[in-house]
Fold this sequence. Notes:
Blueprint lengths: L1 E7 L2 E7 L9 H11 L37 E5 L16 E2 L24 E5 L7 H5 L3 H6 L17 E4 L2 E4 L11 H13 L26 H12 L3 E2 L7 H12 L25 E3 L17 E3 L21 H6 L6 H8 L3 H11 L3
Antiparallel strand pairs: 1-2, 2-8, 3-4, 3-5, 6-7, 9-10
Helix pairs in contact: 1-5, 4-5, 6-9
Amino acid sequence: MQLSRIVVAGLAVSLVFAFPGDPTEDPQFQRGRDLFDKPFTPAEGLGAPEMNADSCRACHQDPVMGGAGPLELNVSRFGRDNNGAGPFENLPGGQGLSKLYPPMVHGREEYPDPTQPGGADVFEQRQTPSAIGHGLIDQIPDAVIIANEDPNDLDGDGIFGVARRIDVAGEIEIGRFGWKAQIPRLADFVNDAMFGELGLTTPDNGRGFAVTSDNDLVPDPEVSQQQVDDIAFFLANLPAPQRGGSTDPRVTQGLKLFAQIGCAKCHIPSLPSPSGPVPLFSNLLLHNVMPAGFRGMAEPGADVGYYQTPPLWGIKDTAPYMHDGRAEDLRGAILAHFGEAEQVRANYVALSEADKDALIVFLEDL
Length: 366
């Protein structure tokens, strides 16, 4: 591995290269970048028949290609929880309903009737997470993530934290990507998004994240294994955000406050990997930070209200915040923490205005 510092779109960033030399000069990186930016067409298999966008870049664009997405790019998920009484049930065909349909398909607002069996009565929006730095996160060993679990709150701080365990071809792996930590590896992230977001089929690699066929007339797979590998290589070698390097003394003060009020219990500053510390400010665990009575989606191993701790590196450039974009700015994001983070939120509220300002200055330097 080789650690270097480069500038992308005016942003100074650090990067652990996957091979000796500069990966941005590697033909595979360039191919992957072109595919990530490529607007696919129905003639190439786009849509099945629905999709959320025509390219990866269409959603992952802030502050640079591969980043997060604005509020208007949110997607929605639907389910049934019997008006909050439970249990949560998936709709026929799953939770996701795409934003975009061709003219011959009924509009996306025509959800299943909640008064009928199998109808939707609960939904939630999902904010586009940044994929910048995913290559470094992919290198963090499962054991490192598991080591920070506290499912029984043995330290009595009210914060639990559990790793998402996923059965992949009969083997248990730890999820690290997606709001519900539902994706364990970076290549799985690409396969899942190809169909879930674009409606494009990909080859079966035996891991269960590829959809190999759909009902259009384009021969399957619509995206080749080489193309999947190229996109994964591009994402793996995207520069991870680097600290801003502000000399404002409030940055140091804010870092101390970040630890003192309890933010660092979940947003751990760095996790070890074979190539060195990954300064992501996350434990990659699931936590319930939603208010009492929250209704949303559930998955095996990730119940209603449980979301992965989002990495904070580069956070100043990825507003809005929280899983559904409910917080427009960093102050709002802190105040939107409930559940396991209730005490941390109260600690923040109790700070002086000067200390609150220092904490925000620190976060804006990440």
